[in-house]
Prior knowledge:
With 271 residues, the protein is of the alpha/beta class. Helices cover 30% and strands 24% of the residues. It contains 9 helices and 9 strands. α9 (214-218) links the parallel β6 (200-205) and β7. The protein is globular. Bound molecules: S-adenosyl-L-homocysteine. S-adenosyl-L-homocysteine is lined by residues 102, 106-109, 139-140, 142-143, 145-146, 160-163, 166, 189-191, 206-207, 264, 266-268.
Amino acid sequence: MTGPKRFPASLKSATAPQRELLMPQRHLHQATVDAARLARPNGKSAGAGMDSSAVRQRMVGRLRAEGKFDEQVLAAMAAVPRHEFVDSALAAQAYEDTALPIGHGQTISKPSVVAHMLGLLLASAGARQRGSLGRVLEIGTGCGYQAAVIAMLARQLTSIERLQALHDKAKLNLQRVVLPRSPRLIWGDGRIGHSASGPFDSIIAAAGGEDIPQAWTEQLAPGGRLVAPTAARGRGQVLVVLDHVVEGGVSRWVRSEHEAVLFVPLKSGVV
Length: 271
Ligand code: SAH
């Protein structure tokens, strides 16, 4: 039989995830509005057939033009297909410098924020000496995007997520990308760290708490650096950098506060 090719009804009816519209957070709402605007009339995302590598190089080029990001980090970001970590309805936005919903009220971090935080970790004395992030702990695996970028820059990565649904999603996402080494993914409460995999040369949190959990400080190796969004008096949430310095055999932890940021909350327990 000849005639026009028909798509199955399920393809025609694909829409942006409706549940995100119920979220009060403005960036989630805005991302959904943008996704609906960019989605094609037949329901397929405009990103489905794009040359993702060229679009990704342009995103990295825009970040490079800002002149403030580490080249090693930019090279890693140029190699990781961010569109594989978001819903296909949002793929067209995967290479814009924006946070996007990943379900369960959580977001994938903005590329510039990922670049900035990993740059801070690579700028520590220990990382400069090694030329790598060394052994890394990430708290808040989310969709696994940042874990993939870290895996390109680290000797070993352990990443913890408290939401089982996202932990499972990250596992699937990370299986689809080629990485020099597989991250160890843990479903658990990242506030207690993961002493069995530590101590860590680098610790990075993708969710913001009231203060830095003691377990993280304890699991930070001598010469190691931690970067975490944390509440600061009178300033809302800021990026806090903590260095484990050893002098004359004595450890001390040097804390500095950086710019204001807005991360999802660091919560306790697992779901
Ligand atoms: N790096 C992620 C960003 C995810 S958003 C990415 O690239 O997609 C932050 C994540 O931190 C959320 O998935 C949230 O569930 C998780 N989170 C919040 N509190 C946590 C905790 N105590 N332990 C582990 N994960 C936590």
